[in-house]
Design a protein that fits this description.
The structure is a homodimer. The longest helix of chain A is centred in the middle third of the chain and has 9 residues. Chain A has a single domain, classed as Pnp Oxidase, Chain A. By secondary structure, chain A is an alpha+beta fold. Chain A contains four helices and nine strands; from the N terminus they run αββββαβαββββα. Chains A and B meet through helix 1, strand 3, strand 4, strand 8 and strand 9 of A and helix 1, strand 3, strand 4, strand 8 and strand 9 of B.
Amino acid sequence: MENENCQVVLNKCSYGLYVVTSHLDGKINGQISDALMQVTACPPKVALSINKNELTHDYILKSRVFGVSVLEKKADLSIIKNFGFQTGRKINKFEKIKYVLGKTNSPLLIESIAATFEVEVFEDVDVGTHRLFIGDVIFAKMIENTEVLTYEYYRKRLKSEIHPNSPSYLEEKK
Amino acid sequence: MENENCQVVLNKCSYGLYVVTSHLDGKINGQISDALMQVTACPPKVALSINKNELTHDYILKSRVFGVSVLEKKADLSIIKNFGFQTGRKINKFEKIKYVLGKTNSPLLIESIAATFEVEVFEDVDVGTHRLFIGDVIFAKMIENTEVLTYEYYRKRLKSEIHPNSPSYLEEKK
């Protein structure tokens, strides 16, 4: 099957946009993700797919925890640029970002978000380019019960860029 | 952590709505799911979380394949009632539904959908009430490149019901 056509089809699936964060040895990092979903309600568990090249992947793999900040629809798009298009290996992504440290010590955003929650990983699955982390939601907080930013809205309405490390990345034809 | 509050927060995550189908021993079945996401782009892989009580779960667990029909925004809501609120153990859900059998022999809808794809499962993970099926997308087809139905739109705009077996089910306060 031709991969590009497949991705056009798979882009009909719907996602939110999240800042996924973690920590290791006193350092913090985070990145943009759309590949997150709830997998059970009682008790609440989620799954996250993250590219193995990402620094946040390495932090989660070792710390076994991550934080999720759910971006709101009217989020400042500089947040996506900050977390999605540069690497924490070269800069401190949190330098100009307001945040708190959660119960898992993962940083959680304060602005431009609808909600936050934190996850303790109990299983990870190697799925090739990415790793799937599955965990228990151990803390959750509504910040502002407002409309959230979806991948669809970000991509089509805002005509914005998608990072090649996204599971749903589709290369533009030249 | 109080479970109900957690679910209110987790409902800020975004999902699409899909008819997930499979087959076993010449029988076919399908159900509504929102718990589906792409986990890698190259090659394309997806993960699906499905309640262990569902007949479609049993079919996928044994046949190791499933089909996905991505509901469009203007989908006939009787499809959700048909696939989401009755069990294939008692009735044939496909009796009044137009469908084709895909390459995996999973039924794929023809009407009210934007796209279809089929998955060969390579791994499953027991996550408690649900099982997570992870697989390769082996066939994908765009039916109509139109707006899709999201969980958010279904739940809020259409004020519609959610089945208790959904990973994102939230019991209404009486």
